[in-house]
Amino acid sequence: MKQPKEIKTAEGKLGVLLPGLGAVSTTTIAGALLARRGLAAPIGSLTQMGTIRLGRRTDERAPRIKEFLPIAALDQLVFGAWDIFPDNAYESARHADVLEHRHLDAVREELERIRPMPAVFYPQYVRRLHGNHVKKGASKAAMVEQVREDIRDFLRDSGAARAVAVWCGSTEVYIAPAEVHSSVARFEAGLAEDHPAISSSQIYAWACLKERVPFANGAPNLTVDFPAAWELARKQEVPIAGKDFKTGQTLMKTVIAPGLKARMLGVAGWFSTNILGNRDGEVLDDPDAFRSKEVSKLGVLEHILQPHVYGELYGKLFHKVRIEYYPPRGDAKEGWDNIDLVGWLGYPMQVKINFLCRDSILAAPLVLDLALLLDLAQRAGLRGTQEWLSFYFKSPMTAPALYPEHDLFIQSMKLKNTMRWLMGEDLITHLGNEYYD
Amino acid sequence: MKQPKEIKTAEGKLGVLLPGLGAVSTTTIAGALLARRGLAAPIGSLTQMGTIRLGRRTDERAPRIKEFLPIAALDQLVFGAWDIFPDNAYESARHADVLEHRHLDAVREELERIRPMPAVFYPQYVRRLHGNHVKKGASKAAMVEQVREDIRDFLRDSGAARAVAVWCGSTEVYIAPAEVHSSVARFEAGLAEDHPAISSSQIYAWACLKERVPFANGAPNLTVDFPAAWELARKQEVPIAGKDFKTGQTLMKTVIAPGLKARMLGVAGWFSTNILGNRDGEVLDDPDAFRSKEVSKLGVLEHILQPHVYGELYGKLFHKVRIEYYPPRGDAKEGWDNIDLVGWLGYPMQVKINFLCRDSILAAPLVLDLALLLDLAQRAGLRGTQEWLSFYFKSPMTAPALYPEHDLFIQSMKLKNTMRWLMGEDLITHLGNEYYD
Amino acid sequence: MKQPKEIKTAEGKLGVLLPGLGAVSTTTIAGALLARRGLAAPIGSLTQMGTIRLGRRTDERAPRIKEFLPIAALDQLVFGAWDIFPDNAYESARHADVLEHRHLDAVREELERIRPMPAVFYPQYVRRLHGNHVKKGASKAAMVEQVREDIRDFLRDSGAARAVAVWCGSTEVYIAPAEVHSSVARFEAGLAEDHPAISSSQIYAWACLKERVPFANGAPNLTVDFPAAWELARKQEVPIAGKDFKTGQTLMKTVIAPGLKARMLGVAGWFSTNILGNRDGEVLDDPDAFRSKEVSKLGVLEHILQPHVYGELYGKLFHKVRIEYYPPRGDAKEGWDNIDLVGWLGYPMQVKINFLCRDSILAAPLVLDLALLLDLAQRAGLRGTQEWLSFYFKSPMTAPALYPEHDLFIQSMKLKNTMRWLMGEDLITHLGNEYYD
Amino acid sequence: MKQPKEIKTAEGKLGVLLPGLGAVSTTTIAGALLARRGLAAPIGSLTQMGTIRLGRRTDERAPRIKEFLPIAALDQLVFGAWDIFPDNAYESARHADVLEHRHLDAVREELERIRPMPAVFYPQYVRRLHGNHVKKGASKAAMVEQVREDIRDFLRDSGAARAVAVWCGSTEVYIAPAEVHSSVARFEAGLAEDHPAISSSQIYAWACLKERVPFANGAPNLTVDFPAAWELARKQEVPIAGKDFKTGQTLMKTVIAPGLKARMLGVAGWFSTNILGNRDGEVLDDPDAFRSKEVSKLGVLEHILQPHVYGELYGKLFHKVRIEYYPPRGDAKEGWDNIDLVGWLGYPMQVKINFLCRDSILAAPLVLDLALLLDLAQRAGLRGTQEWLSFYFKSPMTAPALYPEHDLFIQSMKLKNTMRWLMGEDLITHLGNEYYD
């Protein structure tokens, strides 16, 4: 038995702050409320449904994760949000049309009490949406201050002991990291002078870091993934994580690509198309917003398959990703993948995958897990980039010197061995030679 | 740096003995011959194409497995086979119609020289095939002796220093392990009295163990997976492995099911159907042969998803597997899977997978890897069941007290950490906290 | 303008009698009730939604069919049923779980008033179902009399002027037409002596014919498709039609096969599998019931593709149809087809079709159309087999000398030209050379 | 028996002139050469493989179309072509990589003798291709004269009695019909002054009409579908047909959409994507070329489903078509369609279609049929737009007052009844009431 990390207890309420009160947020909140009353199961949440194997295979020790780790309980959560529309969480959920009436009605009153704070919203970063429940501020720096005040007000009004934030807003147009993102000092100067490379989501993130609120980023935006943010997070002793929730097609891709690679099967081409009809689809119909998403989605295969190492297998891989706005389906996204495989002696084979999924249903449990695990991380004294949470992201943040791990199974191993390490348990290697001889 | 195992060097030729000289065997042999001349790549073979990461991520140490492990080189292989038809390997490959003429013609002479020894063939175990290139023997015990003599003759004639065997014959009808399989003594008595629960494949395996030839079983038959065989393998210091090559649909299943489970997504139903038109499809059209296959295929989800642990997620999983003989495609097998998922709060989603694969193209690299790794295992002093080779099998053999690991990623981890352990390298846990703080 | 047929007007109420009050029947009834109140559209019903082009393309005459033909209006329908369970139509519909609560609740009272009469049910013909709301009768002949009495009672109680019947019960085990089916006299002797080749559905049909109630058969059973029934129908001047509603996979097959044939594309193989979880799936899990269905489903391609005429294209077609009971989906049936095409010079291509359909949603409009069109046929003086209704059936009944037409487009042409002929309009040939020169 | 049309006999050789000697042309030519030697079957060609039913169903008269109609025989064909590359037909076919070596080698010499004449090629209409085997001309009018000379030379050198032309070149950028296309006089003025709305394909077509060579257009370009061309065709007594070969996804669409409509099933959305890697895919990667194709592909559903008539069923149909350049597959195009259906009472269903097809394999038989049928049309005295050939086109040309028929089955009916009418046979209506009563 190794030494466990020292972890502060999860006393009091935990505020969960969500920039963006749309389909994902309301599905998350409604689900947490239903689950804590026992009205529905938080399926897809590793912290709520999962177990963790400890010791040897024959020991049969596999506690529930929520009992193994000192994370906050669902009962302890209180929710807050910002949005560009003034609808409360019930109204927004009805509009999103993800959950059935029977589910929303069961927690209607609690949802109605959640009214969004006015949003920071510079329309040039999300061009297809138009809302007017927005803050006015003299500068981006002033906006940061307003968000900080919102956070303090929220903590006071809700009685929460501490908070975490998870970005559930839209995808912003692609912004490459620039000089202004290179240090805390430069970024703060940029805020003061309304630098165009500082988008709305970066303003939220910066305010959270200043208030020592851990921050996870569910979109492909920069938000909290640039040197100045890393620096501030370490200085403030705040854990951060991102970016872009791994759901739908990319989730399947990071399951299947590692399988093909484990077996050293070649891939000549991978064509992926998506049809989706929700607000996300509408936003991504803007080519500049799609560009953010595309960068996030295309990197996955490159990192998993390592064409520079396996030139014969993956050196000529043609990878194309499309997202098509298709209103008839609403939130019920659909992915279609065609994979051209290369087998023994070069013989071709094909795999087609058709995933009839639901965007918010897949994202909601990730929001919940990230809130609980980032809060745990902070109480355990972890700070800065939390690579062990790569499991949840399409485009995981890492230390600058490292390549990201996209393989879902490596990510899962990393996540679970980090849990074991936090609690002083032996790491698992699956060697298992002790059972023989 | 840990202490590596002591491993005898791979000197001299290695005989690869294949009971069954059909599509899989001839595709394997032709491929090995082509690959060693540089005429085609042995894609799908981990030993030939793979690398293994050693040390820290930033060390960038990732040698080729074939250079890291002291396995035999392709140049050192010589092939032998048994079959119920007298066709040589070239004729049989032409008939199987898997490889193109340009590939077969390039190694035609070498293939023609491989003529099968007469088979042990009791037709009641494989009812749809009828061949007459078969041994006659007074009893099953006498059959064992004839196969032993074949092995000794092969070693002498080919000049091989040692041999390994991989079962590439047909699926036999389902046989449950019985009293006769419970000890070496009882099994040998059964051989003498022609016990009906001793099938042809068991006779080959027994002969190999007696001759200290490591044995891998590519079909779902009992063959080498029963207490008497385990006992003999340990006594004779021979490594064994099985059973049923993991290819096609089951390969995909053991990739996707772990992914769904990692994310704690529920599964309400999984329907799998296969269409295939080769000799394998014809054999499996016999319900009793299909029964062997079905047992092998159905266990996979049960073990990966653990419904006893995750009742809410997998407790009601309805799993159905069908194999349909469909001649138009020949060896180009096709799988179609429908998976009914259950997400957050119980909302349904679906995944469909259509795998246009090729049976022998997927199996051939497994035959090669198993031959090379079993030979290595024997030289490293390993004996009995080699659980670390689970990676290659639909229905992995394990120590009696253990449940099998079906998750391809756990199997891959086990395989690679065993390789590291054999060579005295640090095991990999993917914790990676050393890169932070 | 030709002479239209003389057709009696559709005065008074029309009784629609449904043997079997399960998913299909209740979906039909609820839909008719909703549609007549304007609460939902009777989509899929040609009589309600369709138009018919008359005259030249440039005339722009295309009246609604329900205005063109003197068929009964939805307001005029009254429903009756028999079933082996005593549940009323509302309870049965809830159990079938096809329609949403909001739909059923809107017509709940009307549905609750529809209580099934006790069924004729000899369990040997439908072995997987067990109900006890059944008639007791001294003989099959006595059963016929009881059903006739039911019909007369229903007409009296409901005030209906006349009635039609549509078989919506389960598929019975396969019965080949035998001597007992060869004439009215022999059949009536068979009824008296409880002949085993006379099943429950035949008893219903016979009673209907005796009462001059037109009868359509939605299952693949013999029911009303044998010489004695043909003879009786003509004698009694009753129109009859069948058999087996064309829905789901077979519907798609009779759309796609004619398309391939029109283009003279060859077909080497066609593999069809279905997964379904409703009562129908359960019944078809009995191999003898499946046999009825299989005969009905396999004939389709043979008749459309004419392998005896087009030997090079279809002479070696391998056609396999599977139905798999798969409870997770309930009534939401799913079909998967793989078609192996042969093109120019013999080059292969493939089509895969995945149909996520709903059994009762596809069948309900057929029940409605058949009731209305058979009633029209009777008022127009048509009697015996109505081949022009082939459009609705997997296995259309024809005059003995004729082959059935399975091509949906020929069937549609036949149906619409018959409508034109009934009303004295010019038939359409699509020649259209009058628009040029 | 009606009076047949007077048709000149098909004496002498028939020249088949193909602008564009790429994948489609060489596949057509090689196939015709192989078929006439009996080395492969011209599958997909209605004229070569089809039969036509005459008289009543019970008459069993169904002659081969090639025996029924006085069309030219394969033996009578001689081929000519133009192309922007100088490769002969064998070299071009090898490069296209559609047919196997065994097929090309069997007719190699004949293919090698077919050397393309230099092309008319203004690169602004096909921007992704660059060839230098091109004509130089003082003006577009001069280009017309050069092509006319080519035609006369070809007839003289080949000894052909007459010729037909089929456009097998690339898709040009979208050009809307303009003033210059409105009359023969204006068009000829436009030729003289190099009007930018006159593309290369229009020049070929104009030259053919001048030489009284019937012309079919296999691409979505204007080419021969504008008032000036219609006028000239009628004046010169030349039949013309177009446009855009109906192959692949659109072929399936015009099979399935009529099936859905026949059954009055609603369609809420239809998403179609294509992946293809040949020269066609490369050309269509240019958005302006794709625009031509998109117009051609999108019109199909609008015309078949008639949303203005069936507002409830098709009024909100969302239709999206994508073509994606994806090199790994070469000529082996793949389509994926998702159709969102609406059934009884508005309940949703889905159909997915995955078509693994081959572009040139599907197009080649259309080229052959069109050549033979246009030649027949000319000999039968037909001139101008041949609507009865709509069967072969994505975007059929019609008389100005008419809407096009896209339904493959109406097209097939029109085609076959026109054949019957030409030969004085009764038209078929599928009424068939003569078999009853």
Automatic annotation (TrEMBL), chains A, B, C, D:
Residues 248-360 form the Myo-inositol-1-phosphate synthase GAPDH-like domain. One of its GO terms (molecular function) is inositol-3-phosphate synthase activity. Pfam families: Inos-1-P_synth, NAD_binding_5. GO terms for biological process: inositol biosynthetic process; phospholipid biosynthetic process. InterPro entries: Myo-inos-1-P_Synthase, Myo-inos-1-P_Synthase_GAPDH, NAD(P)-bd_dom_sf. The keyword Cell membrane does not apply. Keywords: Isomerase. Its EC number is 5.5.1.4. Belongs to the myo-inositol 1-phosphate synthase family. This is Myo-inositol 1-phosphate synthase A1. It comes from Sorangium cellulosum (strain So ce56).
